[in-house]
């Protein structure tokens, strides 16, 4: 796995997204884990 993993995901009609498998593995995200979304004023 590279040090710069990138992925693209589509938001479904219910507002849900799928995190690409490589990113889930790299970040050790498992089913049931909670994620926090932080958005800056710059939108990133």
Write a structural description.
With 44 residues, the chain is low in regular secondary structure. It has one helix at residues 21-26. The model has no long low-confidence stretch (mean pLDDT 87).
Quick summary:
14% of the residues lie in helices and 0% in strands. The protein is low in regular secondary structure and 44 residues long.
Please report which band the strand proportion falls in: under 5%, 5-15%, 15-25%, 25-35%, 35-45% or over 45%: under 5%
N-to-C order of helices and strands: H
Tally of helical segments: 1
Instruction: From the alpha carbons, calculate the radius of gyration and give it in angstroms.
Output: 12 Å
Q: What structural class do helix, strand and pairing data support?
A: little secondary structure
What is the mean predicted local confidence, pLDDT? 87
- Extract low-pLDDT stretches: none
| Overall geometry | globular
Q: Could you give a short account of the major beta sheet?
A: none
Cα end-to-end separation? 23 Å
Secondary-structure map with pairings?
Elements: H1 21-26
Notable traits:
44 residues, SpoVT-AbrB_sf, DNA-binding, little secondary structure, DNA binding, SpoVT-AbrB_dom
């Amino acid at each position: 796995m590279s040090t710069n993993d990138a992925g693209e995901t589509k938001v479904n009609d219910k507002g849900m997204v799928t995190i690409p498998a490589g990113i889930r593995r790299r970040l050790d995200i498992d089913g049931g884990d909670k994620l926090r979304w932080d958005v800056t004023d710059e939108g990133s």
